[in-house]
């Protein structure tokens, strides 16, 4: 199964991608996570990307396409994958389509998670993550047992720099500018599946599985 997950910041793409990855045994490929690793390691790509990410803007298409194509060449993606956060623009979608056509493994579906802007801000202002194991928590919806400490390894939790409200609002604006043409692109190809993500995590997971009915391996 080859899946793309779309949705605004805070919609729960990462959360649901992890659950789908566990369920279907295929890797979650999160462009945000890959970029943050580059930033942390101080690579050229990371230095270039950071300026865009800190402003809540998209990293240029050519950088993103090259990065994702490299990742898809990894053998762990041969049996399927879940793209979390890519494509976000029509040029990215065209590049992905061409690459998958060449590999004779077209997309199975594009799932779009919808939530209101206010819910996105609420979720992201409460998101904390473990820098060691990368587990994500939410102080309101999914708190750790001990305040701001990872349940799995006892590491102190951290917030993402781009989760400040002003940056989140900018990210939401960029998302809504780019989403309409991308939505049309996938609607024309009959791949689009909408999921109402403004509900508790378990219910969103059930809705997602329902939306993917008939595609399971
Ligand atoms: P990225 O890291 O992908 O950020 P994003 O798309 O803005 O998405 P988030 O990670 O913020 O949210 P999410 O939907 O994954 O939600 P999560 O599951 O964590 O990208 C960061 C930046 O990188 C971009 O701004 C851009 O600069 C750059 N970039 C990345 N890809 C790019 C591309 N293709 N092109 C150009 N630039 C690119 O959940 C959020 C919180 O809510 C968590 O605390 C979670 O526990 C909680 N939660 C989840 N689901 C629920 C629920 N149902 N109920 C209650 N709480 C929930």
Structure write-up:
This protein has 217 residues and is α/β, with parallel strands linked by helices. The protein has helices at 13-24, 31-41, 44-55, 61-72, 90-102, 117-125, 165-188, 201-211; strands spanning 2-6, 28-30, 81-84, 109-114, 127-129, 136-138, 192-196. Strand 5 and strand 6 (136-138) form a beta hairpin. It is globular and about 50 Å long. The protein starts with a strand and ends in a 6-residue tail after the last helix. BIS(adenosine)-5'-pentaphosphate is lined by residues 7, 9-15, 31-32, 35, 52-53, 56-59, 64, 85-88, 92, 123-124, 127, 136, 138, 141-142, 171, 197, 199-201, 204. Residues 7, 9-15, 31-32, 35, 52-53, 56-59, 64, 85-88, 92, 123-124, 127, 136, 138, 141-142, 171, 197, 199-201, 204 line the site of BIS(adenosine)-5'-pentaphosphate (AP5).
Write the layout of secondary structure elements.
Elements: E1 2-6, H1 13-24, E2 28-30, H2 31-41, H3 44-55, H4 61-72, E3 81-84, H5 90-102, E4 109-114, H6 117-125, E5 127-129, E6 136-138, H7 165-188, E7 192-196, H8 201-211
Helix pairs in contact: 1-8, 2-3, 4-5, 6-7
What are its keywords?
Rossmann fold; 217 residues; 8 helices; 5-stranded parallel β-sheet; two-stranded antiparallel sheet; globular; 48% helix; binds BIS(adenosine)-5'-pentaphosphate; alpha/beta
Tally of DSSP helical segments? 8
**Broad shape:** globular
Tally the beta strands. 7
The largest beta-sheet arranges its strands as: 2-3-1-4-7
- In CATH, what is the homologous superfamily of one domain? P-loop containing nucleotide triphosphate hydrolases
Fraction in helix: 40-55%
């Amino acid at each position: 199964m080859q899946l793309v997950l779309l949705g605004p910041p805070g919609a729960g793409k990462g959360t649901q991608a992890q659950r789908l990855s566990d369920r279907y045994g295929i890797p979650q490929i999160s462009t945000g996570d890959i970029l943050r690793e580059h930033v942390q390691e101080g690579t050229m790509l990371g230095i270039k990307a950071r300026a865009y990410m800190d402003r809540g803007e998209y990293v240029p298409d050519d950088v993103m396409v090259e990065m994702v194509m490299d990742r898809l060449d990894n053998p762990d993606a041969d049996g399927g994958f879940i793209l979390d956060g890519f494509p976000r623009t029509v040029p990215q979608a065209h590049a992905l389509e061409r690459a998958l056509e060449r590999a004779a493994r077209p997309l199975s579906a594009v799932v779009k998670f919808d939530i209101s802007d206010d819910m996105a801000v609420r979720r992201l202002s409460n998101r904390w993550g473990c820098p060691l194991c990368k587990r994500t928590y939410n102080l309101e919806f999914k708190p750790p047992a001990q305040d701001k400490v990872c349940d799995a390894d006892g590491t102190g939790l951290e917030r993402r720099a781009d989760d400040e409200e002003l940056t989140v609002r900018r990210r939401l604006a960029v998302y809504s500018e780019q989403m309409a043409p991308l939505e049309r692109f996938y609607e024309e190809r009959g791949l689009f599946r909408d999921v109402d993500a403004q509900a508790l995590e378990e219910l969103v997971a059930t809705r997602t599985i329902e939306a993917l009915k008939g595609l399971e391996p």
